[in-house]
Amino acid sequence: MARVVLPEDSIKEISDLIDVLISLFFESLPRRDQRNWARVYLNGLVRTTGKKTIRNIAGTGASSVEQSLQQFISKSPWDWTPVRRSLAQHLERTAQRPLAWVVQPMVIEKAGDRSVGVGRQFVPQLGRTANCQQAGGIWLASSEASFPVEWTLTLPGPWTSELLRRRAGIPDTARSLTPAQDAVHAVQRMAATWQLQRRPVVMEVSNTDLPQTIEAFALQDIPFVLKVDGSLPVSFGGAGRHKPGPHTAPARELIDSLRSQRRVVEWTRHGRAEGAVTLLTSAPILATPAEDRPVPAPPTPLLLVGAWTEAALLPSEFWITNIGDRPLAQLFLLAKLTDRVTLDFTETCEPVGIRDFEGRSFRGWHHHATLASVAHAARLLSTGGRHPDPVPLTSAAARYTGAPAARQPAVLPPRPLVPGQSPRRAVIR
Q1: Quick check: 319 and 226 in contact, CB under 8 A?
Q2: Quick one: pLDDT band at residue 238, thresholds 50, 70, 90?
Q3: Among 223, 191, 3, which Cα is nearest to 85's?
Q4: SS3 state of residue 255
Q5: How many CB atoms lie within 10 A of CB 213?
Q6: Percent of the chain beyond pLDDT 70?
């Protein structure tokens, strides 16, 4: 991927903003020298061309700087969770108010076997087996911008052995789970302890992980929009005394049987000027319990949503949600926030080096991911970034030393329908 080189005036503005963000997010670091090295590393992520390794950030002939950065990133025992939590709380106050928490998988292919969490494994996003790390980001996303605030690193089974735990400094509490399970646990921790306004969680879930994911979110009353495969068996019907059922069919077949009830949605793709047309329909379904657990009582009410592109004969995308009081256009807008995250990952998060960490420790990987998240925020929140902050103040630094921006009143978009239109046609702008 080509790395974008920012003009010098943009870099200066981002650097000024980084100074402010250090005071806001890194108060939990007890020593001044730690905060200074955080500043050096953040500026390096923004300024350094090429791969954002510690050696490249330190520069040629600066062995003492490189050693200090190695110590700060890979060995210093500072806790990354308070920094990430402060970042998320700050974004809720000052950036475009997020509509959802979007879970975005991240695959980091590797040549060797020494990086923490690396292993040969099948990767659905690649459609093949790869020698890689599998990680996941949780992003606060609106239609204008998105920001990673929490990260998970999936550990293949061998990495939970005593030898590899000791070698990589993996804590005893870290377990070998699927990437989806890691993401679900991270969302649960955020919902329980980060003091954020709860948002719908948008993520893609395999048929295998779906029952546990629904159950985990239902236990904490977390709203969700989960992308699923069309082959997923779903149960429906049998809700009343005179209704037969329940019946089971693949999600694709159930949605296709309701094609006469489709609604037209006109919307604008993220990062593009042209509009798109999608046809939507939905059906109430019943929660499917995990194999080792009884049917929940009462079962979680769920809605299956299906989408056709304008010219498609069969539905191509499917989601399951527990949000039952919103128009389909709003649910579709939430689901498509994954496109916003993909765009910002490619245009901002990758250029600040989110995949570039070459160290071998669990702690170092999380420290790097935390600082890359702050660098991502600095780029987008400065006027030199692609998405200017909506707060109408004169400079990037000034925006974060005054009063916080006024909050938007609604979690979900307020205008799914255009007045005077048929209820079967909605427009998302």
Answers
A1: yes
A2: low
A3: 191
A4: helix
A5: 23
A6: 82
